[in-house]
Amino acid sequence: MRFRGRAKSTAPASATPAPSPAEPAGPPPVLVIDALGRKCPIPIIMLAERIREVPVGEIVAVLADDAAACTDIPAWCRMKSQDFVREETLPQGGWGFHIKRTY
User: Fold this and answer.
1) What are the tens digits of pLDDT across the range 53-80?
2) Which site among 7, 34, 86, 101 is 20 to 30 Å from 93 CA-CA?
3) Which residue ranges make up each domain of the chain?
4) 98 phi, psi to nearest 5 deg
């Protein structure tokens, strides 16, 4: 049997709408490392040298436009037991990688 028309919404009327993509997810970074224009492995080296500048539990962001950073930064976080929080696409090109310092 086929149904025509719109599917009925199952969300309650009081449901809170999802945040828009323009809204930041999570706390703002305490430190932003600008590695835009730098090639691998420079963004990782910059992160490794500077992550100790932020207190444990705080966020550091790495801005990079080298495609290798998309795999390198999460891999570095796993190897160094740091929390990879999220990746965001930057409007000017590249990505912002948010890392939470764990120790």
Assistant:
1) 999 999 999 999 999 999 999 999 999 9
2) 101
3) 31-96
4) -105, 125
Could you report the per-residue pLDDT of 78-102, keeping only the tens digit for each? 999 999 999 999 999 999 999 999 9
Residue 49, H or E segment: helix 42-50
Q: Which amino acid is at 67?
A: A
Q: How many CB atoms lie within 10 A of CB 85?
A: 18
Three-state SS annotation for 13-48: CCCCCCCCCCCCCCCCCCEEEECCCCCCCHHHHHHH
Q: Provide φ and ψ at 73, rounded to 5°.
A: -70, -50
Q: Kindly list the catalytic residues.
A: 40
Encoded amino acid at 37, one letter: G
- Predicted TM-score (pTM) of the model is 0.76
3-state secondary structure of 8: coil
The encoded tokens of residue 43 equal: 């963004």
* Token pair recorded at residue 9: 């919404």
As a CATH number, domain 31-96 is 3.30.110.40
